Amino acid sequence: MTIRLPGHPVPWPADGLVTFAATAVDVVAAPEDGPDLLRQAARRLCHAAGPDAVPGGAGGELTADLGAGLRAGMFVSTEMRSGTDKTSLLRLHLRLSGEGEPSSPASLEQWAEIWHRQALSPVEVERLVTELPLLSATVERLRHGKPLAGFAVLVTGHFLSDLVGLVGCLAELGAPLDSMTVLRKDYAYRWRHRVHGHLLEQGVHVAECHDAGAVAEHTARARRAGLLCLALDDGGYVAPVLLDGPRTRTPERAAAGHWAGVVEQTMSGIYRLQGREAELPFPVFSVAQSRLKGRIESYWIAEKAVTTALELLPSLKIEGQPALVIGYGNVGAQIAALLTQRRMRVAVHDSDILRLIDAHENGYVTARDLCTLLSEHEPLLVFGVTGRTSMSRPEFTALRRHAHLVSASSRDIEFDLPALDALAVQAPATRPMSTPSSRTLTLSGGIDVTVVADGRPVNFHETDSISNLHSDLVYAGMLTGACAVATDPAPAGLDPAWADTVLEESGLLQDYYERYGPQAAPTAVVTSARGASGGGSRR
Predict the structure, then answer these.
(1) Left if phi > 0, otherwise alpha if psi is -120 to 50, otherwise beta: which for 167?
(2) How far apart are CA 468 and CA 465, in angstroms?
(3) pTM
């Protein structure tokens, strides 16, 4: 049996006999770096196995006993290429064999994940930097005086390759890596394990975004180091925790005095603060509500969400079929337009009456009541784009035909999956012509409901959400906001106008227009391989 990707479970055989299990991680690097990369990976694997596991071997292959009869064989291969490129695709192979039920601390899947936690090579980092020119230019504008030198930065992030670039830029602006925390949003990204490994190698603390104690632990480390805290958040994982401290008798609220502020890039994070703005003891820099994010990024997200959703659907003819978009904000409006371009009959619902009027006057089918739209429009495809829970029990029972539910939010909250499970009269199943990433439930009356990507944001499924050249703009905006919080903060609270003023006076949008506007010409980006590790320069 072969493990091709970590995260795809391969069960231990019932008879206890493992003849062969394998996985491999690809690294772009100079061919001569192969032996060192293999030794690093072998040491990482043996460290997880315990002190008795020591890599050995000869003839180009390393071996190690991982305990409980499990043995690892490790070697590196090089893809043969023509041309003069001085780099190669190096493939680090892990083969596991043995007998008996494993008592080691990791299952086969966990061994695969450990193996895939291979830090980015200098060549890969250098290529990454070229894909983030706006971030690099922002660092050059702001690097004087190292504005983040006195701050312990917490980043909530999707484990995509661009996160490595953002962390490197924060370090270049003075944020100490050993006082930095990254909260991991656990989605099925291709590079998630490599990004995780890279952050650990840099000395960054990594925790899960739902870890209740992570914010308090970060605050405590910052206090011991004599640093103030600052967060770049993605989904409201920091400020609400600090505000909720008094209600749960935890120390978070007292620790809030050690926080300079929070940069928030998602509307779901802003929604979690609604009605509580007066409680905030620090400023929140809202990239989420900025014109920069709303006017430019929305199309990229919508296009990725629609494209990925259609790839994950079974073979369907969608032309002429009804679709429903719940949430007519910046991204939802773009999704509705893209579905219309694909010749679907699109309906729109939004709880905001102004948005609903806008959708109606743009020619979409609308109704004040969502259940009415679901029962009368009978959508084949439903996109949830509200950043909140858009469908629960009443909405599920209003469905009149087989519907495919697709989330395009930054969190897995669009569809109330426990309520859907409770309504099911038949256990979830993977049906013929469906994909392994979707599950179908049958409701009373024989109505099938397929939850695409298990209800998680479809634009994050097994891929980068948007390309680095696209995420570059918002990350540069977040970096600009972090420096504003650090050097010239607004009063405590949430003032979207502050973010717009800072971003539009920073030079970031001018830089964007010069790079991609009508007179733009291709330009070389001078980079340093050390850039994303916190050193070197960027231009």
Answers:
(1) alpha
(2) 9
(3) 0.79
Measure Cα distances from 441 to 371, 415, 422, 446 in Å.
Answer: 19, 14, 10, 10
Cβ-contact 287, 259 below 8 angstroms? no
Token pair belonging to 59: 């003839």
Helix, strand, coil shares, percent, the chain, to 5? 40, 20, 35
The answer to whether the CB of 33 falls within 8 A of the CB of 90 is yes
- The pLDDT, as a whole number, for residue 254 is 46
- List the strands of the sheet with 283-286, edge to edge: 205-208, 181-185, 151-158, 228-233, 259-264, 283-286, 493-494
Helix axes 496-505, 468-487, angle to 10 degrees: 110
pLDDT band at 87 (very low <50, low <70, confident <90, very high): confident
How far apart are the C-alpha atoms of 364 and 475, rounded to whole Å? 33
For 203-249, the pLDDT digits (tens) are 999 999 999 899 999 999 999 999 999 999 999 999 999 998 744 44
Bridging pattern class, strands 439-443 and 447-451: antiparallel
Residue 312: closest CA among 467, 457, 464, 453: 453
- Written as six digits, the tokens of 104 are 């080691």
Q: Give the model's confidence band at 6: pLDDT under 50 very low, under 70 low, under 90 confident, else very high.
A: very low
The encoded tokens of residue 53 equal: 């596991």
Q: Tell me the DSSP string of 228-265.
A: EEEEEESSSSSHHHHHTHHHHT-THHHHGGGEEEEEE-
* CB contact set of 216 (below 8 Å; sequence gap of 6+): 250, 251, 252, 255
Each residue of 61-72: pLDDT tens digit? Answer: 999 998 878 889
Give kind and range of the element (H or E) at residue 156: strand 151-158
Q: What is the pLDDT of residues 376-434, one digit of tens each?
A: 999 999 999 998 899 999 999 999 999 999 999 866 789 999 999 999 996 655 444 44
Of residues 498, 468, 466, the one with CA closest to residue 484: 498
